[in-house]
Every structure is written in structure tokens, then in C-alpha cells.
Amino acid sequence: MAVFQHTLKKKVEFSGIGLHTGERVSVKVSPAPAGSGLLIRRSDLGASYIPCTYKHVLSTSHATTVGSGGWSVSTVEHLLAALSGLGVDNAYIDVEGPEVPAMDGSAAPFVYGIQGVGLRLQRSPRRCIELKEEVVVASGGGVVCLEPANHFSISVEIDFPHPAIERQHYAAKVNSKVFRNEIAKARTFGFLREVEWLRSQGLALGGSLENAVVVGDEGVLNGDGLRFDDEFVRHKALDLIGDLALLGAPIKAKVTAVKSGHALHHRVAKALMESAPSWDYSLSPAIEFPSMAPAGGEIPAQVATA
Ligand SMILES: [Zn+2]
Fold first, then answer.
1. Three-class SS state of 181
2. Terminal CA-to-CA distance of the chain, rounded, Å?
3. Residue bearing the bigger pLDDT, 284 or 208
4. What pLDDT shows up at residue 302?
5. Which residues pair with 255 in a beta bridge?
6. 188 C-alpha to center of ligand 1: Å?
7. Taking CA 210 as the corner, what is the angle to CA 303 and CA 93, rounded to the nearest 5 degrees?
8. Helices then strands (H, E): number in the chain?
9. CA of 224 to the centre of ligand 1 (A)
């Protein structure tokens, strides 16, 4: 049974601070025709849309950056995770500024906003990437492995030599309900002792306890603590889903990621797509998307719908 493509019912806008640049930025996500995929541009520079895919990744240092012809947009991964996790196939993404707003450091505000406007079914079948053989990339102690499967599942492991984190593992067969309830709310995290160095590199300039879990020598510094006991590894799952959205289509695979990051996620996407014999497009569903109920709850103040 084929699954149909979806876009948004109407435009939704998010604004806030960029995690790395610290600049005030905003992003509008609007309905796009079937078959468009996710298209992104810097609207403040009058740039043309480009497909938001692995082919246009410019950097994977501390965030995933896409761009073309002299412009770039950083930190696309949490918005892409929300779009892909909720089953949005087609959308125009207009970014005002060099970075997607950090919001609260998770994908939850994007999920609320997208659910708030709702999805529209389109009359074209959704195609997904069907693996024929295993693809593995490894670097610096990290590994990402894609194995053929009948659905999209992830198994993510992290291991940080800090008593607040240490070894954590999270696994799930991902559908939009699991994404919303278990993954979307997990926030990005950083270590207090690295903040000074990051800032000297021009990174994390907008980072704060409002948009990241900050880990000090004694533990988590955020007053409200963690949203999940294993929030760190769930955030890694969120990043993985966002980075794999750059494949341009959902993937039927069992994805195992151990001590991975944006660079390795990008490398596995590129290795897969550039090895034609190991995959093909298929019209069978990759991910179950339960129909989305209207949001109902509060929409955060940073989200505007039109
Ligand atoms: Zn992240």
C-alpha cells in the first residue's frame, strides 16, 4: 500500500536566537507542491531555493550547515527532524539570517508549530529509499551502520566521560507518535568547560540555559533538570533523524549509530546515495505516520502562523 505525500496546510513562522551566531533570526515554512521535497533559501539575501539535501551540506562542525553560491544556513537539523519526523515531504523553508533559530534547543517548538497549522495530503505517492545491502562508515571511534529493514528504526549509543552522562542507549522503531513523544523534546547539550573555547571559535554565541542543557563539573546546571533521564542520547537520536532527512526521502533501514555526530551522519548519507547498487526508490511505506490531530495545546509565543 502506497503512502501519499504531505505538505503543510499553511505557512508557519519561527523566530528566535541562533544557537551559534547569537543573531536574531527567523524561518518561515510554507506549503510546496508534491514532488518538490524540502527546499531552502536565505530569503534575507534574495537567494534561490536549493534542495535541502546532503548534496548541499557545506559544514558539519557542531551543527549541519547547508548552502550554495555564497550563502549558507546553519543548524538546520532540528527543524529537518521535525519535518521528517512528522511526515512532511514538501515545504519551502525561507530563512532570514545565517541560522535556523535555536528555540528551546529541541525540535518541540517546531513540532507544535507544524501541528498547529496541520498537514495536507497530496495526490502523489511518497517514495522511500529501500536498501539492498548494508552501508557502514566509521571514524574517530564512531560508527554508523545502515541495514536493510522493512521500516525505519534507530539504535543510538553515546559515551561521554562525565558522571552526568556516561554511556546511554536509545532504540526505537520511529513513527510520528514516537518522534513527538520520545525524541522531539530532547534538547541539545554542551559542557560548561567547553563554552569559552567554543565562543573563541565563534560558536555557541547564542547558547544559554534557555536553549541547551549545560553540564558543569558537578552535573546539569539547568534549574529544572532534564526532560528525560536519558535526554542526551535522545537528542543524539533527534540529530540523527534531522541529518538523515538530508537523504531527500524517508529510508527503510535499521540505523545503528555509536558515538556519532553530524559529520558521520553526513558521511553515511553521502556513502549510501553515491553507491547506486546498494539502494533503490520504492513506493512502500518507510515510516508509519499516524494521522495528525490538530495541535489543541498552547502554541509557543515564538511561533506565528499565517
Ligand atoms: Zn542537535
1. helix
2. 34
3. 208
4. 53
5. 146, 154
6. 5
7. 35
8. 6, 21
9. 20
For the chain, the residue count is 306
CA 35 to centroid of ligand 1, rounded, Å: 27
- Give the CATH class of 4-126+292-305: alpha beta
Bridge partners (DSSP) listed for residue 169:
157
Ligand 1 centroid distance, CA of 102 (Å): 9
Q: What is the percent of the chain with per-residue pLDDT over 90, rounded to a whole number?
A: 81
Quote the CA–CA distance of 266 and 296 in Å, as a whole number: 36
Alpha-carbon gap, residue 118 to 130, rounded angstroms: 28
The CA distance from 111 to 58, in Å, is 26
- Whether 265 is catalytic is no
Query: Which one from 20, 235, 262, 265 is the annotated catalytic residue?
Result: 262
CA 254 to ligand 1 center in whole angstroms: 21
Tens-digit pLDDT profile for residues 168-182: 999 999 999 999 999
pLDDT of residue 300: 46
**What's 247's DSSP letter?**
G
Of the CATH numbers 3.30.1700.10, 3.60.20.10, 3.20.20.100, 3.30.450.20, which one belongs to the domain with range 128-282?
3.30.1700.10
278 C-alpha to center of ligand 1: Å? Answer: 28
Residue 304 burial by CB count (10 A; 0-12/13-18/19+): exposed, middle or buried? middle
**Whole-model pTM over 0.85:** yes
| CA nearest neighbour of 268 among 281, 282, 253 | 253
Give strand ranges (E) for 110-188.
119-125, 128-131, 135-139, 142-148, 152-160, 166-173
Q: Where are the domains of the chain?
A: 4-126+292-305, 128-282
Q: How many CB atoms lie within 10 A of CB 264?
A: 22
> What are 155-164's pLDDT values in tens digits?
999 999 999 9
